[in-house]
Amino acid sequence: MLDERTRALAKGVNFASLTTLRKDGSPTAQVMWVDCDDEHILINTEIHRLKFRHMQRDPRVAVLIIDSADPYHYAEVRGEVVEFIHGPAARAHIDELSQRYFGRPYIPEQIESERVICRIRPYATKEKA
């Protein structure tokens, strides 16, 4: 179960840095929208993206969620991707995120390939308040 403060950050209008591991083991990070359920951090991306291929090959990730009102307040979640959710659920999820971040549905023309939700099970969480 995610702690309440991490859930609040993940459910807010806050950006996250997703760190994945390249084929050579070196880390790479991208700024992402973020979400969660009761137990997992959720990242929505597309299957043609390099970060998706990284997570398929090596599911270990780190997600740093930064409070937009106070960048010194953040939660770092280290974990592993335990499921990839494809299809209508992933497409509906990107619309939900776009509503949260921009107040409108996601623009279909921005989708280059299939959307996918990456469910990340935390094994370590650190919060800085």
Q: How would you characterize this protein structure?
A:
The structure is a single chain. The chain has 129 residues and is an alpha+beta fold. Helices cover 24% and strands 43% of the residues. It is built from three helices and seven strands, in the order H-E-E-E-E-H-E-E-H-E. The chain has a seven-stranded antiparallel sheet with strand order 2-1-5-6-7-4-3. Strand 3 and strand 4 form a beta hairpin. The longest helix has 15 residues. The two termini are 19 Å apart. The model has no long low-confidence stretch (mean pLDDT 94).
Count of helical stretches: 3
Shape: globular
- Using only C-alpha atoms, the radius of gyration works out to 14 Å
Relative strand content: 35-45%
Note the run of SSEs as H and E.
HEEEEHEEHE
Strand order of the largest sheet: 2-1-5-6-7-4-3
Low-confidence regions: none
Q: What assembly state would you assign to the polypeptide chains in this entry?
A: single chain
How many individual β-strands? 7
N-C termini distance: 19 Å
Instruction: Give helix % range.
Output: 10-25%
Mean pLDDT, rounded to whole units? 94
Structural class: alpha+beta
Largest sheet: 7 strands, antiparallel
List keywords for this structure.
7-stranded antiparallel sheet, alpha+beta, 3 helices, single chain, globular, about 130 residues
Concise overview:
The chain is of the alpha+beta class and 129 residues long. Helices cover 24% and strands 43% of the residues.
